[in-house]
Amino acid sequence: MAMMEWNDSLKVGHSIIDRDHQKLVGLINELGDAMSAGRGRQACGEVLDELVSYTQTHFANEERLMAAHRYADAPRHRAEHAKLVRDVLDFKEKYNAGTATLSVSLLHFLMAWLTHHILESDKALAHGIPPG
Ligand SMILES: [Fe+2]
Ligand SMILES: [Fe+2]
Q1: Taking the mean position of all CA atoms in its chain, how far away is CA 77?
Q2: N or C end of the chain, less CB within 10 A?
Q3: Which protein residues have their CB within 5 A of the ion that is ligand 1?
């Protein structure tokens, strides 16, 4: 069962950003599936790595758009990205060291963060740059 549903309310109206978000939702669901199927630490860790890596790719894509269009709110938006990356890399370090485990509450945190960030910051970004 999907942990997070992709639906039109999450669309920001920019094709690159929407494509990336859809992929991130897919990876969160894959991680949820791997956990609920009881796949091992290594297999779940690989999906987590993919999610972290695509998140960084996506943030870089948005930040490129912000720079190209001199988006005024870029510093605040970039700071939100940087904080999430720091938190997730911290978690991954603990996970790799065996001092943290994947949990439903981590998945809920990621889903809530992504939903809130899309609805607030990414929609504002899409409205502040030319359509693409
Ligand atoms: Fe963003
Ligand atoms: Fe985004």
Answers
A1: 14
A2: N
A3: 62, 122
Ligand nearest the Cα atom of residue 55: 2
CATH code where residue 110 lies:
1.20.120.50
Positions of the chain with pLDDT lower than 70, given as ranges: 1
Q: Give pTM, 2 decimals.
A: 0.95
Domain residue limits at 85: 14-128
Ligand 2: centre distance to CA 20 (Å): 7
- The CA-CA-CA angle for residues 91, 95, 97, to 5°, reads 120
Residue 5 lies in a domain: no
Q: What is residue 126's predicted lDDT score, i.e. its pLDDT?
A: 98
